[in-house]
């Protein structure tokens, strides 16, 4: 599959055929999709289009709930929750919109849970955990790069000897290893491979 013009925010699926990532459109997936103009509308009250996504807002006196709906609640409005709240048997409780967030000490704002340091995140052996606000993602370990092979994304070893990103001496040979490389001085030279004399 080759796409002569490329697929900016998508994948090449066949001869000049792009499959766009969510939130993007166009022949080369280079245009932002305006989700606010879709039917049915994605937001109950107000919608703002953003690059590759959108945001929902509620009218005054309403609060955005974790499911994206707007709930009218005078008592919720008075509590002044950061994201939204619920009333259970007359008690008002603030909510956080993601499992990667928890209520802060003030009971109104949400603070991030670092899934990487708490061990809640599980990344495969050749990926490392990167914490984000409310979530995390798994990034390729150093010396590996993300490539689309045999129908899925995998972390593939970077051959530093071929990409010329090694720091071997002029009189040394570069040997690729999984996730790294080694330098070995050529015959007639001695040293670490980074320095050869």
Give the key terms:
197 residues, mainly beta, 3 domains, two-stranded antiparallel ribbon, two-stranded antiparallel sheet
How do you describe this structure in short?
7% of the residues lie in helices and 41% in strands.
What does this structure look like?
The chain is mainly beta and 197 residues long. It folds into three domains: 56-112, Laminin (Ribbon); 115-156, Laminin, CATH 2.10.25; 158-196, Laminin. The protein is built from three helices and 18 strands. Strands 1-2 form a two-stranded antiparallel ribbon. Strands 3-4 form a two-stranded antiparallel ribbon. Strands 5-6 form a two-stranded antiparallel ribbon.
The major beta sheet can be summarized as:
2 strands, antiparallel
The name CATH uses for the topology of the largest domain is Laminin
CATH class type of the largest domain? Mainly Beta
- State the fourth-level CATH superfamily of the largest domain: Laminin
Q: Could you give the distance between the termini?
A: 48 Å
Shape: elongated
CATH architecture of the largest domain: Ribbon
Mean pLDDT: 86
Helix content: under 10%
Lateral strand order in the biggest sheet = 1-2
Number of domains: 3
Number of strands: 18
Secondary-structure topology with pairs:
Blueprint: E1 10-14, E2 17-20, E3 24-25, E4 31-32, E5 46-50, E6 53-57, E7 62-64, E8 70-72, H1 74-79, E9 84-88, E10 91-95, E11 101-103, E12 110-112, H2 115-118, E13 127-132, E14 135-140, E15 144-149, E16 152-157, H3 160-163, E17 172-177, E18 180-185
Antiparallel strand pairs: 1-2, 3-4, 5-6, 7-8, 9-10, 11-12, 13-14, 15-16, 17-18
């Amino acid at each position: 599959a080759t796409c002569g013009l490329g697929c900016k925010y998508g994948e090449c699926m066949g001869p000049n055929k792009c499959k766009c990532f969510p939130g993007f459109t166009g022949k080369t997936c280079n245009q932002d999709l305006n989700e606010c103009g879709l039917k049915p509308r994605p937001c109950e009250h107000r919608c703002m289009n953003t690059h590759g996504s959108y945001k929902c807002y509620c009218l005054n006196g309403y609060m955005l709930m974790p499911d994206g709906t707007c709930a009218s609640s005078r008592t919720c409005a008075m509590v002044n929750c950061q994201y939204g709240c619920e009333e259970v048997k007359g008690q008002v409780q603030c909510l956080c919109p993601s499992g990667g967030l928890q209520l802060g000490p003030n009971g109104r704002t949400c603070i991030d849970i670092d899934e990487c340091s708490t061990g809640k995140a599980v990344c495969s052996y050749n990926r490392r955990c990167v914490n984000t606000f409310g979530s995390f993602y798994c990034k390729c370990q150093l010396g590996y790069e993300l490539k689309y092979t045999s129908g899925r994304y995998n972390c593939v070893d970077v051959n530093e000897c071929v990409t010329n990103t090694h720091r071997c001496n002029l009189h040394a040979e570069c040997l690729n290893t999984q996730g790294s490389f080694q330098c070995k001085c050529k015959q007639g030279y001695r040293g670490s491979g980074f320095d050869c004399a």
